[in-house]
Amino acid sequence: MNTNRINKQNGSAVFNVIILLLVAYGIFVGIQYAPIMIESRTIDAMLNSIEQSNKTAPAENMQAVENMLNNQLYINEMTHMRDSFDIDYMDRAYTIRANYERSLNLGFDQKTLKYQKSKTLR
User: Fold this and answer.
1) DSSP sequence for 27-61
2) Angle CA 40–49–45, to nearest 5
3) Closest Cα to residue 56, out of 121, 105, 107?
4) What is the pLDDT of residue 8?
């Protein structure tokens, strides 16, 4: 009867270690993913802000659209991402495209996350 209780305690310890490892792995991945998610949501908000600005004061040329984008990048302290944006003019509308990749280390694999978003200003 005494050995049965010891086996139950050892089984419980193994279970606890497995749970701790799973929680640690979740934290490891979450710490990497959180900034990527925040960055993508910030870019969504920037593009929406540019779209709203354009509705109240429409951009008259490519330079005005670039200025709006650069202003939003500066406000959000993301000027390093300027190369990830393209602006095109077609059919009397400006299209701003954000396109970049981020890498997520899963411990056993590297996962590439691709972000693509565009807004058309009319």
Assistant:
1) HHHHHHHHHHHHHHHHHHHHHHHHHHHHHHS---S
2) 20
3) 121
4) 59
Q: Are 90 and 62 in contact (CB under 8 A)?
A: no
Number of Cβ atoms within 10 Å of the Cβ of 65:
21
What 3-state class would DSSP assign to 79?
helix
pLDDT digits (tens, 9 = 90+) for 34-73: 999 999 999 999 999 999 999 988 888 999 999 999 999 9
Q: Is pLDDT at 119 greater than 60 in this prediction?
A: yes
Are the CB atoms for 86 and 107 separated by under 8 Å?
no
pTM surpassing 0.85? no
* pLDDT at residue number 25: 93
Domain ranges of the chain: 36-121
Please state, in angstroms and rounded to a whole number, the distance separating the CA atoms of residues 112 and 51: 29
Select from 42, 66, 44, 43 the least CA-distant residue to 54: 66
Are 97 and 47 contacting, i.e. CB atoms less than 8 angstroms apart? no
Q: What is the pLDDT of residue 3?
A: 54
